[in-house]
Specification:
six-stranded antiparallel beta barrel, about 200 residues, about 15% helix, mainly beta
Amino acid sequence: MFTGIVEETGKIKAFDGFNLEVECTEILKDVKIGDSIAINGCCQTVVKFSQNSFCTNISQETLKLVKPFKTGDIVNLERALTPKTRMGGHIVQGHIDGSAKYLGNSRFELSDNLEKYVVYKGSVCIDGVSLTVSSIEGNIFEVAVIPHTRENTNFKYLKSGDYVNIETDILGRYVEKFLSASNNCTITEEFLKENGF
């Protein structure tokens, strides 16, 4: 689990379609084999590390969903939560749902029918950054990005037409599952009124 508060940016040193190596500094201070690190919001397991980089193995399932990893790209990095970590962002799993195209001016175009999970004033994770949705119309949404976030993430390198990783809020996906007809849901308006809602 993550918060969506980026700890540092790193640089992809090498990627061969399976092995990914990322150069960084802050993330390595207490790293161990088996640790989880979010790379642009995508949870990955550390399989090897050195004084200035760590390595992960990228599964085919991950490669189907995330924007392509390219050598030289700057990526957002965050270590997994610990019991003492402040929850500054929102609950982020590091499980990418799809991608979005950057349209400029903090606006993004969603792909893969994800718009139903993105709501006004709700949370969305873009390349591992927890952000608040400031407007949404159809599959186009805008987020509020403060200067600190822009300067301390890879957002400062985003160009119109670039793709980003999207993780929607897990709460919305659970609500959809519980309320789906296939689950023979018995929650009705009457049930909600009877239970104080």
